[in-house]
Every structure is written in C-alpha cells, then in structure tokens.
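Hey L., structure's done. Input below.
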Amino acid sequence: MPMISPCPSAASSNPASDATSRCTPSRSTRSSRRPGSTCRDRTCRGRLIAPVIATKGPAQRDPFRGAVSPPLLALRASAPRGFADLLARELEGCGVSEVRERATGAAFLGTLESVYRACLWSRIANRVFVELARFDARDADEFHAAVREIDWAAHLAPGTTLACDFSGRHPAITHTHFGALKLKDGIVDALRLATGARPDIALERPGVRVHAHAQGSAITVSLDLSGESLHRRGYRGAGGEAPLKENVAAGVLLRAGWPELAARGGELLDPLCGSGTFCIEAALIAADRAPGLRRDYFGFLGWRRHDAALWERLRAEAERRAAAAEAAALAAGVRVRGSDRDPPAIRGARDNAARAGVSALVRFETGLLAEAAPLAPREADRPGLLCANPPYGVRLADREGARTLHRELGEVLRERFQGWDAAVLTGAPELGMELGLRAHRTHRVWNGPIECRLLRIK
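Output:
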C-alpha cells in the first residue's frame, strides 16, 4: 500500500525573483495603472506584490520536457498548533518547494496543481491561502486604498459571490469586523470602477473568500482557496459532545506511526470512539483515500483562475488510488475497530464511516472500556495501536469522572495490550498521570482552542 507520501510525486520548479515594488505618491489616475504595477494612489505607502499568477516571476521553459512550466504562487497553509512539521512534510509530498515551517502552519511556493493536491490530500491543514499582495498601511484609509489597487477582476468573475475576513493586530484597525468591512469596501469599489458591477456578499460558502492578516502595519491579502476549514471532510453528521477535529485525529495517527503499522497489516482500536473520528481517519489513511475526496466545496471552485479540467483529473486519480489501496488493505488484514458504551454514538459513527466511504475497513460496536481487547487470535508479529481521546473534564464538566476513566484506561492497557503502541490525547497533564504508564514521547498539541497532551506509550 503506498503510504509514504500523501500526494503523488510532482516535479517542482525553481522560484524566480520576488516581484515586489515600492508604492510611491503620484497624481496619476487609476485607469493609467497596469494591474500589479507600482501603486500610485497618494494614500498608499506600502508594498504591493505583482498579480498572483506572476507572483514569483514569468513562466519558464522546462529543459527536460521542452514545455513552458507554470509560474509559482506564493502560498501558505494553516494547521492546528503542534502539527506544523507534519503539515510541512505533507506539502513537500504534494510537489511544493521552499517550505518554511511556522508555529501554526507553513509558507511555501507551488503551482496550481500542487495547490489542488494540497487541498485534496492534506490530512493536517486547516486552510490554504494564495497571497495576492503585501503592503504597509498606517490606518484604515491607507488599507482601503491599497486593497483597491489589486486587480480584483482577475480573480472574481461577474456574478461571483464574495466573503471577507480580517485577522491579526493592527495599530489603527483594532476590530476584525471593521477590518473585514474595509477589505470588502476596497474590493467592491475596485470592481465597480473596473467592471461597473459589484459582487454580492455571501457569508456561507462564497464563490471567493478573501483574507487580510495584519502584523503591525504590515498587511497580507490572500485568497482562501480552501473556502472553509479542510478538517471538514464532509462525512461528519452530528458530532456529539466535544468532538475531536478530523485533522487533529489524523495528526495523532501520523505521530503514532499508524501509516507504517497499517502497511504491515496492523490493527487499530479506539475503545472510547464516540462519533468515530480516530477510526475513520485511520481507515482513510489505510485506504490511501484523499481526505478531501468527499468534499463538495472548496474556495478555488469560484476563483477565476480555477482550472476545472486539471481539478477533475486529480480527483479521478485519487479515486483510482483509493480503490486499489482499499483492496490491498483488506488483503493485508488491516483491522480498524471502535467501541463506545453509548449506542446512539455508535450509530452515528457507522453513518459517518459510510459517508466517508470506509465502511469496509471499519467496525463499530457497543461496549464498555473494561471489555476492550485485541482481536483473537492474533499473530505475534501483527502490530497494534490503541488510540483514545478520553473525556478530560473541561469539556464534560466532570473532572473526577475523567480521572476515573483515565485510571481505567491505564489498567486496560497494562492488562490486555502488551506489545501494542498507544496514543492517548488528554486535555490536562495531571490526567495523563492517572494512566499509571510512562509515555516515551509527549507532544503539546491543540484541539481547537483546547491545549492537550498527546502521550505516546509503548
């Protein structure tokens, strides 16, 4: 089963020089300015990047293929805290270049194809952005003027709906809602001047989502090519109480070495499975199924630069890979199981697995934690991984109950799972101590706003 790289290998191009220009005061009218060239608005004193398709220089001829290679885009992806290194590894497998890891994601260069691969194949990313412009803006008026200088008609076709977000800290723009409003006003004013029409605003699933992020007076404007967080795979129904985010679950599984264990025909058990997120993500990995394959919405689908034929080719390729890998996983004896004492949770988990397309690899059963055990008979060399996210008090308002459950989990691991690996995600270090087992590695990670500890136990 091919599990080393999340994406098929893709050739990468060498980046050309960064095409930026200094904004200088001038009385020239906007109609005299070529989109992406030097900003000539008197109120704009920042820096603008050239249009996105030329962000990293002109297309170059590939000496090996005798064809013109596509230009590179300036990109960044966000991820849950604690998983940026896994994201960087995934992106490299998708054919991007110059990956620079950050605390909450990574910056990189890539072609349109590598962007599509990242959105389709990344198990870790929250969102993927393509940068349109960087500039300095001392106040809201300078911000609005700089936004107007971007060639928005190159990105929004007539009739495309729009949504705008603003984040970060700016000395003058102190409210994110106000920042998003000024961003929207700049885009609308630019499009009205260029085309005579303005886009409609759609807060949910817009055709194009634009994001501005401030670090002091420095602002980066980007398109959100994911549209909504990529952790939403499209399979989850009602999440139940305190659901585990899908990309956090995938990150835990990658940290615990599940791809390698699955390649050896391993077994995975989550004895506290709830809505089945660990199990479903484990099955997606074992079946080499792209996590974005069942999504029906991405932010790039409404982008004027979208290449529908390329996207459909990549989706078809992912479908073929999944069909071949699922058959191989079943032949290798991969087993993924989840149990929970709550029958409605088990019914929901089964429904989620069906929507994810992995019902053939996953089995869910109603059962108590005290009854959890490996499948029997089991070959001595068949690896096993127990993965669990026990309740940790903060989310269920039951601290003492959380301690009791952690102690019971530790007893089950000691008594029945000798020779297995375990990955336990807990919301507080003191609860991890209740397991009574020494973790050989501890990772600090976040599930949404909740700081957690991932304990890896052998």
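The CA atoms of residues 129 and 345 lie 35 Å apart. The longest helix spans residues 308-332.

-- N.
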